[in-house]
Specification:
45% of the residues lie in helices and 13% in strands. The protein is α/β, with parallel strands linked by helices. It has three domains: 218 residues, HUPs (Rossmann fold, 3-Layer(aba) Sandwich), CATH 3.40.50.620; 76 residues, no CATH class; 69 residues, RNA-binding S4 domain (Structural Genomics Hypothetical 15.5 Kd Protein In mrcA-pckA Intergenic Region, Chain A). A hairpin with a 2-residue loop joins strand 9 and strand 10. Helix 9 crosses helix 10. It is globular.
Length: 425
């Protein structure tokens, strides 16, 4: 770490407390790196230690080791996962070493974070299948050429029974029970399996094995991230800093993005769907998404926000965001095509690619036809959509629930996004 030599001062009077030397001013490079680190983050713990690490890295030219661990508990990644991936990419662009850690071993235990019951562990086959897509999808955000990919089974399996016992001796049950989800479950009389105590220990040991300088995670991972600091100190290493990122609100703007809640955008979704979903978020949520998902600078976002406050249509800003995100996960050409597709649909046009199917039984009632085409889950729901003027046949709104369609080819539309071309015979 670079420190300025304090100027020579006169000896203090007897009994006076000498003034502490002033810390060296931060270089522009360190100030910039600190600003990049802070952007959108919830907590940086401890910030003073991170500043020292940045200063040491600048002075030595040695990149810092920055770790993100993800358990492959599902086959796909959504926008919520990319909040920490984006931060990882920003730090990667500063020249630091990024370690994308796939928790194939810890997935066997199951992360208890936020759980109110014991989580069933995944099978090795499920983990292997999910892990195959994780890094491929993460590479849409990270620079693959500058990313170190690791699996924590490398060192976790090698620990063996003796090593696991020695690791468990480095943390107390009392401290473990300070964790919110464990405390709440214990108070409520809900079961806590002993193996769940191993999860934070193993995640913390990952930081020891990788000699991490910084670990990233969501706010729900704070306990596990702090465990890494504790265990590194136990093993004689310099403790890592931790950076927590907020959980991204989903399309509804209320609940965190989650597949189970249906308020997500998968990074593998079609460009047209991705673009349209981004445009569907509220104007208020848009700015939070800009901060957490966009690669535009904070100055650029602030300027755009000022333009909207001065009267510019907020949809213009939302279009920018939709184009940027769709381009990142597809291409500029695909994003432009998705934009045109959205315009066509908003003007009553039909997308270029829609599901096509052939059905028999003409004449067929409209509600039954919508159900058969997969545009409504049931005939009763189809009738509700018809009553709400949400159904079009060949571009014309249909309000007659008794309508029966004879042989022919029809374009059915429900809402703004659901289409099907049906050939009825």
């Amino acid at each position: 770490m670079i420190q300025a030599t304090p100027p020579t001062a006169a000896a203090p009077r007897t009994g006076a407390t000498p003034a502490a030397p002033r810390a060296a001013p931060l270089s522009e490079a360190v100030q910039h790196a600190l600003a990049v680190t802070r952007r959108g983050c919830e907590e940086l713990i401890p910030e003073a230690d991170w500043v020292q690490k940045l200063q040491r890295s600048q002075a030595s030219g040695q990149p810092l080791r920055i770790k993100l661990g993800l358990d492959p508990t599902a086959p796909d990644i959504h926008f919520g996962h990319t909040v920490v991936l984006n931060k990882l990419r920003q730090l990667q662009d500063l020249g630091h070493t990024v370690i994308f850690l796939i928790g194939d071993f810890t997935s066997l235990i199951g992360d208890p974070s936020g759980r109110n019951s014991t989580r069933p562990p995944l099978t090795p086959e499920q983990i292997q299948a999910n892990a195959q897509t994780y890094y491929q999808q993460a590479s849409l955000v990270l620079d693959p050429a500058k990313t170190e990919i690791r699996y924590n089974s490398e060192w976790s399996l090698a620990l063996g029974a003796m090593g696991m016992i020695e690791l468990a001796a480095k943390y107390t049950v009392a401290r473990m029970m300070e964790r919110n989800d464990f405390h709440q479950r214990y108070t409520a009389g809900s079961p806590i399996s002993v193996h769940e105590f191993l999860y934070p220990l193993m995640q913390g040991y990952d930081s020891v094995a990788l000699k991490a300088d910084l670990e990233l995670g969501g706010t729900d991972q704070k306990f596990n991230l702090l465990m890494g600091r504790h265990l590194q100190a136990e093993y004689g290493q310099e403790p890592q800093c931790i950076l927590t990122m907020p959980l991204l609100e989903g399309l509804d703007g209320v609940e965190k993005m989650s597949k189970s809640k249906g308020n997500y955008i998968g990074i593998g979704e079609a460009a047209n769907t991705m673009y349209a979903k981004v445009l569907s978020i509220s104007d208020e949520l848009m700015w939070r998404w800009f901060t957490l998902l966009s690669f535009q600078s904070e100055a650029q976002i602030a300027a755009l926000r000022a333009e909207v406050a001065a009267g510019r249509n907020p949809k213009d800003a939302k279009v920018q965001l939709a184009l940027e995100l769709t381009t990142r996960f597809h291409s500029a050409a695909a994003a432009a095509a998705a934009q045109q597709d959205f315009i066509n649909r908003s003007q009553g046009g039909v997308p270029d690619q829609i599901p096509e199917l052939a059905l028999g039984g003409a004449p067929l009632g409209l509600a039954a036809l919508l159900k058969a085409a997969g545009l409504a889950p049931s005939s009763s729901e189809a009738n509700r959509l018809i009553d709400g003027a949400g159904v079009r046949v060949d571009g014309t709104v249909v309000s007659d629930k008794g309508l029966r369609l004879g042989p022919g080819c029809y374009v059915l539309q429900v809402g703004k996004r659901k289409f099907a071309r049906v050939t009825l015979s």
